[in-house]
Amino acid sequence: MPLQGEYVPSPQKWVRDQVELYERTGGREGNTLLDRGLPVVIFSTRGAKSGNVRKQPLMKVEKDGAYLMVGSQGGAPTNPAWVANLRAAPDQVTVQDGPEPWDGVARELDGPEREEWWERAVAAFPDYADYQRKTERRLPIFLVERR
User: Fold this and answer.
1) Lower Cβ count inside 10 Å, N or C end of the chain?
2) CA 22, CA 99: separation in Å to the nearest integer?
3) Regarding the domain delimited by 13-146, which CATH topology (the fold level of the hierarchy) does it fall under?
């Protein structure tokens, strides 16, 4: 079941538009990275400060029903806002890969498990390796599994 509460769309027009198209069509449209054709998934999180629902399309990195969220922000020096949201409320996340969203629980990965999933992430979207080289911060990654 989708997160309950007020949904506050992204201030970025392309994110707002993609989320709206994806949800309106049950994932039949808006399901790829706009300029690359690679698959994306819509993740919803609870705002750490506001409590509002936030939605973001992220690259699809999936194995055995678990999904990865990579906090790349294109290699920017700071984490995307949703990283703080997950750290504050890891049990307040939904995944939508197709028409029906499902409730998940996220956990930040470290150690060998992180390395294994990082390799999957780079295989799915090679730009992640470039983003990591662009920044001094270690890109946080979270595994989301069904609640």
Assistant:
1) N
2) 9
3) Pnp Oxidase; Chain A (2.30.110)
